[in-house]
Design goal:
Layout (H helix, E strand, L loop, with lengths): L9 E3 L5 H11 L3 E6 L4 H6 L1 H9 L3 E6 L2 E2 L1 H15 L1 H9 L4 H7 L1 H10 L3 E8 L11 E6 L5 E6 L13 E6 L6 H17 L4 E5 H7 L3 E2 L28 H12 L3 E6 L5 H16 L2 E7 L2 H13 L4 E4 L6 H13 L5 E7 H4 L2 H6 L8 E5 L20 E6 L8 H11 L2 E5 L1 H8 L1
Parallel strand pairs: 2-3, 3-5, 4-10, 11-16, 11-17, 12-14, 12-15, 13-14, 15-16
Antiparallel strand pairs: 1-8, 2-6, 5-9, 6-7, 7-8
């Protein structure tokens, strides 16, 4: 029930993950969600999949009224869903391959969107300016959630239901029907949204999908959720070359040893033996094998951020730098991870100093990482054994590589054990005496 939720009066994206902290819990506790929003994209369904699935399991449904500006593929999916309402074979075809609604929303979003419309779980209408009114698009952003007991929560703010909207600086005010002084706000938002959905208002008429198909007024967004083109989508080297650079035999041995250790392990390699190049070559080899990879690199000092960034760019990883010297890095991290998760990017990379990586803000920014597609590299890994830095060793990435000439901490068995339990054993050694032979 909605009353069981602990809700803040305002949710600001600088402090909260608006979808995860607000929208998903509200959807999960509701049987009806009415939403009026300027812009909608199917990518939002991926982000809110858990909440939408719970609402459907509650026997609920969603009603949207949006502006007639859509991604072309989303509009096609809406039309297919509408056609499937009258075509039982098509409706069956849409549904027959659905295994888990939450999984399908994340991985087969457009087909699932069509099916949910066909099955009456999602209803879409479009707000069109009336003839004679001032020119403009429907741009409101209001939502009302209702639970089985009739309690309601209304939200009103700047957030669009698009992937891009989830990355902007946004906020929602929250009003609860059971709280004294807030009932009027809930009633007003509920009344005006329901009136718009059912009758329109003085400024906008509301049309259904079949009417929109007939009148042909849908406009296409040229770049989905982005108002700009992002050229750095990451590349993965072709199969002709295993690595972007020519490696020494001992560097290839180090990568082979790490791969044989299930992509877990420490390299105890002397300074000057090319740990950076070797580690990034290992990352490229994983990206080639998996088809995509998200890379996190932890470094001890600020000046190493730029050094690693330059090398990362040579290897095809466009990096976000995370430290107290870089503003809004946490928003950039969330953006990069979401773009990677929905397939906009094939590679992603964050480089963080140890101090920043050990903060709650960094862990929160990285919480949507997919473990089987993410890799963490700990540079000067012995430093991460310090008690105040151990939180930098994120639990999600399944591929872990630690780099150090001396991975064992002096007079700190507990810190050393923490490093080894996270990264794994030393899987390759290249000591100083070998380096001297190499220099000769």
């Amino acid at each position: 029930m909605l009353k069981n939720l602990t809700l803040h009066p305002v949710y600001d994206s600088s402090e909260h993950d608006i979808i995860e902290d607000l929208i998903v819990p509200l959807l999960s506790s509701s049987i009806m969600y009415m939403r009026g929003v300027g812009f909608f994209s199917s990518g939002w369904l991926r982000l809110a999949a858990k909440g939408i699935t719970s609402l459907i399991e509650n026997g609920g449904r969603c009603r949207f009224v949006v502006s007639p500006i859509l991604d072309e593929r989303d509009w096609a999916a809406l039309q297919v869903g509408t056609l499937a309402k009258q075509d039982e074979l098509l409706r069956h075809a849409l549904k027959m391959n659905l295994l888990s609604l939450s999984v399908e929303l994340e991985n087969n979003t457009l087909n699932t969107l069509s099916w949910m419309i066909a099955d009456g779980l999602l209803e879409f209408s479009f707000a069109i300016p009336r003839v004679g009114t001032r020119i403009g698009q429907y741009h409101d952003k209001v939502g009302v959630f209702t639970d089985r007991k009739g309690d309601r929560v209304a939200i009103h703010g700047s957030f669009n239901d698009t992937v891009g909207g989830s990355l902007n600086g946004e906020a929602f005010s929250v009003f609860k029907s059971w709280e004294y002084g807030q009932q009027d706000y809930v009633q007003i938002h509920n009344h005006r949204l329901r009136k718009l959905l059912e009758e329109g208002n003085d400024q906008f008429r509301v049309v259904t999908i079949p009417e929109a198909i007939k009148e042909d007024f849908i406009k296409y967004r040229s770049s989905a959720d982005r108002p700009y083109f992002s050229p750095m989508q990451g590349y993965i080297p072709s199969s002709e070359a295993c690595y972007p650079v020519q490696l020494y035999p001992f560097q290839e041995e180090a990568i082979d040893a790490w791969n044989r250790s299930d992509c877990l392990g420490l390299w105890e390699m002397a300074t000057g033996t090319g740990k950076t190049v070797t580690a990034l070559s290992a990352a490229v080899s994983r990206a080639k094998k998996l088809g995509k990879l998200f890379l996190i690199i932890l470094v001890p000092y600020l000046h190493l951020l730029e050094q690693w960034k330059r090398k990362c760019e040579e290897f095809g990883f466009s990096a976000i730098l995370c430290s107290s010297a870089h503003r809004n890095w946490h928003l950039d991290c969330r953006s990069k991870i979401q773009d990677f998760n929905i397939g906009v990017l094939r590679t992603g990379c964050l480089i963080a100093v140890h101090d920043t990586a050990s903060t709650e803000r960094f862990r929160k920014a990285c919480r949507h990482l997919k473990g089987d597609l993410s890799m963490i590299i700990g540079d000067e890994v012995h430093g991460l054994g310090a008690p105040e830095l151990q939180h930098a060793m994120l639990p999600v990435p399944s591929m872990r590589l630690g780099l150090s000439a001396t991975p064992r901490r002096w007079f700190d068995d507990a810190g050393t054990e923490r490093i080894f339990s996270y990264f794994g054993k030393v899987c390759y050694e290249f000591p100083y005496e070998h380096k001297y032979q190499l220099d000769d």
